[in-house]
Design brief:
The protein is mostly beta strands and 486 residues long. It is built from 1 helix and 35 strands. The strands form 8 sheets. It has a 6-stranded mixed β-sheet. Strands 4-3-6-11-8 form a 5-stranded antiparallel β-sheet, with no helix packed on it. Strands 22, 23, 24, 25 and 26 form a 5-stranded antiparallel β-sheet that branches. The chain is globular.
Amino acid sequence: MPKLALRVPVLLLAATVLAGACSNKSTASARTNTAPLVLLADTNVLPPETGGERPRVALSRFGVDAAATYYRLSTPKQTPFRFDVVGIAPAAGGFVGVRAAHAADDGRIPAGGVESLAAAGFAPAGAGLLGDGVWLMAHGEGMARLTLQGSIERPQVLVVADDRGHAAVVEIVLGEPSAINPAEPGLPADPTIQERVPLYSSDAWTFGMPTVAISGDRTSVVVYEGDRAAGMLPVRYELRMQHDRATGARTGGGSLAVGGDAGNWRDHEIAALHNVLAVARNEFQQVRVLLSFDRGATFGQEIELPAQGQTRLAQVALAADHSLAVSYWQEGVFGEQQFVLAQGGPVAFDPTGSPAWFACQAPRVLRTMPQFSSPLTTGMAYSVGGDLVVGYAAGWFTSEGMEWTSTTEFRCAVQPFGGELRDTQVDLEAVFGRDPAVALLGSGPTLQIAYAYEVAAGIRVATSADGGLTFTQLDTFGGSGAHLPS
């Protein structure tokens, strides 16, 4: 059973899981109008073969007319491998499905249905995972990801497809290690961990994607949960929990999570400061911000930020003076992705001077990305002097012939305290990015920013010593496929 565990001050999750008024607006030109079906090894897009002999596959057995693309992947015998089959929808909205079928096991047609994958050494994973005859399928809202992993003793052939008529043949041969063989370095013990506290557990496959905020001895967590009595149901809930370190008390509540996603997007975030707790939640045509003025015991105010279409990947931050910033991605008029920022702050206070009511300015679009872009989670923080720093990014796919390339643009928006917002490109990389992060030191014109993000060879940190006007790229560390820096 997956468990949600608390370490001070870090949250651990073990689970099978795998966007108003415009100002300072910039637009990236459209790159493609064709929805991609791609294979990924962590952050790297796998290239298809351009020559050589393909294995013979009876595509009619799977109801497939043609498979224009062929992949040949290599792995040593009995060595763990992992790669993803990913489908993207325009504007990161609408139903998307990807699927895989077992075409050959050491040259022979496998008997039965999807269970033959397990017999051959596969341990697939994905949101909304289900079997339908010979097909193993995963689905999602705006994006679908089917992870094919395991270890094999014999060569294997798969057919992969999406719900828009794209199909490919994937041959996995025994040989040298390749991009699909993940490096799993051991993690040293973290000397800052003081204790580990199991907080919650669930068997529901929608359980996961936690976000955490700490105020004093109280840790607040928001996480998705499913139906514990019927764990495979696609309905998910927003579960809110708190742990009081001083007393050991654990409290919680929840509500039905609006939206049809099955686990590819973390559409909620949380921030805490003193008595104020803010939860931002993505919904259709709006982002809802829930505000508590008693450290999460009750939520006395809701702010609805208007948006276009389905919103994604909200982020929220509180400054030392309780200034509030909320960012999110929304759907543009033509299916493009728009990065939006809304700012506000307290307008009423209780007798102790603690905020009792907030107001927000109209959201503004900072950046527009093309159709079929995949937005990334956002890193956002205030400096000690009230400067707002937003590290955001999105990737898009382009095709040349049958080969797809993923390009991710990493950007940093900075609004100095009392000043005008500026938005700078940090890097442009041929990689399927996941999650940039920012860390701050100081404030004002000499504010230092560290911006961590993924590149093809690992993790890179870009630094700025002038408040985000310029960035210098430092050495890359980690290894190919490393992602989610913090």
